[in-house]
Write a structure and sequence with these properties.
Order of helices and strands: HHEEHHH
Distance between the termini: 39 Å
Strand order of the largest sheet: 1-2
Number of helices: 5
Number of domains: 1
Strand content: 5-15%
Helix content: over 70%
Mean pLDDT: 87
Structural class: mainly alpha
Radius of gyration: 16 Å
Length: about 150
């Protein structure tokens, strides 16, 4: 369940950017439903972590495993992380839902929805990361994505 919280926005981005040209305006269904499912899973995780007092560590392996340095690919879900996840996914779901009506007549609507899902993935990666290197990979692409989109819109 915890890996789905991370992967659903990324899968929403991949499917929307890959099949958005063929689906057209129906691409909002993929991106908005992936964020909506992420919100529901975050609510379940909030209940499990905050009310049952269980901290969850997800360890997927190591990026770098030397004798004295071990940099892991791991995520942590504690009470502050899950509280921030709830805020991020709720705001992102509301932005996705509002953008359906707001961007409906735009010709690049699928690409816009895909970028919103990608931004949500990077924010979730930033919040749930367990080390500074993974936090860096969550923060830097999100800021770069915002700057590139601001330049291309203006």
């Amino acid at each position: 369940m915890y890996l789905l919280i991370l992967l659903l926005p990324l899968l929403g981005f991949i499917f929307t950017i890959g099949f958005g040209r063929y689906i057209g305006l129906g691409s909002f269904i993929i991106s908005t439903s992936s964020i909506g499912l992420t919100l529901l899973l975050t609510i379940f995780a909030f209940y499990e972590v905050v009310y049952n007092y269980s901290v969850v560590y997800v360890d997927l392996g190591y990026w770098l495993n030397l004798t004295h340095i071990q940099i892991g690919w791991s995520f942590i879900f504690d009470s502050i992380t899950v509280s921030m996840l709830f805020i991020i996914t709720l705001i992102s779901f509301l932005v996705h839902f509002y953008s359906i009506y707001y961007m409906y007549s735009d010709k690049h609507f699928p690409r816009f929805m895909a970028y919103l899902s990608l931004f949500t993935f990077f924010m979730i990666l930033l919040v749930t990361s367990n080390n500074l290197l993974l936090m860096f990979f969550g923060c830097l692409p999100a800021q770069t994505l915002i700057n590139v989109l601001q330049i291309t819109i203006c």
